[in-house]
Amino acid sequence: MLSDGLFDLQVNGYAGVDFNDPGIRPGDVDVALEAMLSHGVTGCLPTIITARPDELRERFRALDAAVEGSRLGRRMVAGYHLEGPFLNDSPGYAGCHPAAAMGDPDIALVTDLEVGLHRPILLVTHAPERQGAIAFVGEMTKRGKVTAIGHSAADFETVRRAADAGTSLSTHLGNGLPHQLAKLENTLLAQLAERRLDACLIADGHHMSPQALAAIVALKGTSQSILVTDAVVAAAAPAGTYRFAGMEVERTAEGAVRQPGRPNLAGSALCLDQAVRNVSAWNVASLDDAIMMASANPRHALARPVGHYGLHLDAGRLRWNSALEPTFDGWDAA
């Protein structure tokens, strides 16, 4: 079976490489991208998470220089995902992100972070209940960027206003939330009800059960469901201890990633082809739809910045064997 290559909208690191490491080098990027390519991923948005402004500047400049100097970065990386620091800092919503570094949406900060970069920030995850968030979304939309709701307690009205201003995605829907929410008035229901939001989902069996995943996909539909990994340095790597964005994280033998001594997850060790296999095996969607959720759907979610910045997302081609393992079969363009 042939298909387009997969595309990951949210990947913090891979194969022992942390995209948030200010010491990252071109060779590191190629190690990560080569490993992703071996799992069928032909494009991605390397993701920088919440940090202080000076740390964000350092991390973006280091990552961009490494991508530009790498062999595969120019073809596989069209831009970046900024997840934070404009998130809800309350317990349960912040997750593994450093709450002390969070703040209200800041247009000037995004402008500053992009100075000198070879590739733009294409996607910004934010909490629309924060002060100034709706105006921020409007400005990001004018600049051709995609905004997503994540690590947020936004209610029905706030979610609607964010969508009115241009927000079009939910980042890892169902996660970045407290375990206990109000029964009928909560941000998960608000985002599920908003028809203009596509749902990004982590299908690893740790971030949500197969049954919960099936419920969300049934409500959103496969055309508005996107598979992401939220992978960190421990993806495509053995169980053990790693450094992610200045934090120590542990990958268990079962594939969950956590900070030592804390119950919450800290990203994932998921590979995107495994997410496709999971969705198919769990009968959440057909195999064709599962592949669509990891290939066509994420690329469609980037239609605005692709047009605004004149980008080309070369999907390439994959060949899948009977075990549903993909092999890269070449690029569309020379």
Automatic annotation (TrEMBL):
Cofactor note: Binds 1 divalent metal cation per subunit.
GO biological process: N-acetylglucosamine catabolic process
GO molecular function, one term: metal ion binding
Transmembrane segments: none
Chain positions recorded as Zn(2+) binding sites: E83, H151, H172
Membership in a protein family: Belongs to the metallo-dependent hydrolases superfamily. NagA family.
The name this protein goes by in its record: N-acetylglucosamine-6-phosphate deacetylase
Organism the protein comes from: Jiella pacifica
